[in-house]
């Protein structure tokens, strides 16, 4: 287990760990669906959109495609979901506006308070697959008090590619164990651990809705296992 004094910075997975993407995307798509496909469920639409997330990034992780930012992938994925849903004839401007749903997600209830506590002692930053503008818009709207915006667009690679973690360590001028990844996803933490980072698992049992079947428990002996970010702040003496 990592002693808290060894940690100098905390970086956070964002979608699911810091913000509630599913309720947020469903909320932002509800009015759109009411206009164009009133029989479609907004949560099912959000889930379908999210299912395209990892496959689209795999094209870049595998080097079959050069890096493009997540906003581009989200829009391409949205077009796929619209086509499969039989929604046609939507103006480009309306598609662009809908794609911004990911910029306007709400944090989980304790997040802003907990980040404020952690910021007093540690460098805190997102380590997200979301691009810089997306992270900035989200932070300004939700009051997320980041010290920096780090992640995929900074290193031009998508998690869980090793360089996302190793290059972030270098950017912050730290030793790997001095940087702790905070995430609700065991796979993200496993990739970070392989690069020597410290790890903190935070439980988000409804990220995918009430019937969630993944990431309901820590799958390894992570350095910290907590129920929310305030508990992590307590464990770190903040």
Automatic annotation (TrEMBL):
<keyword id="KW-0378">Hydrolase</keyword>
<protein>
    <submittedName>
        <fullName>Haloacid dehalogenase type II</fullName>
    </submittedName>
</protein>
<dbReference type="InterPro" id="IPR051540">
    <property type="entry name" value="S-2-haloacid_dehalogenase"/>
</dbReference>
<dbReference type="InterPro" id="IPR006439">
    <property type="entry name" value="HAD-SF_hydro_IA"/>
</dbReference>
<dbReference type="InterPro" id="IPR006328">
    <property type="entry name" value="2-HAD"/>
</dbReference>
<dbReference type="InterPro" id="IPR036412">
    <property type="entry name" value="HAD-like_sf"/>
</dbReference>
<dbReference type="InterPro" id="IPR023214">
    <property type="entry name" value="HAD_sf"/>
</dbReference>
<dbReference type="Pfam" id="PF00702">
    <property type="entry name" value="Hydrolase"/>
</dbReference>
């Amino acid at each position: 287990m990592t002693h808290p004094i060894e940690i100098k910075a905390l970086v956070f997975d964002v979608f699911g760990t810091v913000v509630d993407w599913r309720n947020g995307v469903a909320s932002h798509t509800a009015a759109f669906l009411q206009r164009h496909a009133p029989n479609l469920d907004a949560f099912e639409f959000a889930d379908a959109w999210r299912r395209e997330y990892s496959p689209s990034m795999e094209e870049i992780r595998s080097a079959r495609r050069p890096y493009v930012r997540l906003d581009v992938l989200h829009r391409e994925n949205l077009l796929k979901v619209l086509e499969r849903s039989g929604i046609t004839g939507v103006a480009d401007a309306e598609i662009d506006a809908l794609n911004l749903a990911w910029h306007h997600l709400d944090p989980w209830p304790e997040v802003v308070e907990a980040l404020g506590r952690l910021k007093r002692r540690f460098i805190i930053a997102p380590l997200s697959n979301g691009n810089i503008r997306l992270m900035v818009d989200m932070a300004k709207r939700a009051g997320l008090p980041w010290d920096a915006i780090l992640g995929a667009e900074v290193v031009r690679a998508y998690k869980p590619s090793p360089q996302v973690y190793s290059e972030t360590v270098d950017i912050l001028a730290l030793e790997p164990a001095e940087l702790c990844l905070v995430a609700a996803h065991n796979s993200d933490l496993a990739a970070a651990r392989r690069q020597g980072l410290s790890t903190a698992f935070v439980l988000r049992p409804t990220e995918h809705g009430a019937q969630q079947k993944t990431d309901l428990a820590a799958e390894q002996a992570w350095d910290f296992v907590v129920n929310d970010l305030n508990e992590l702040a307590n464990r770190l003496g903040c």
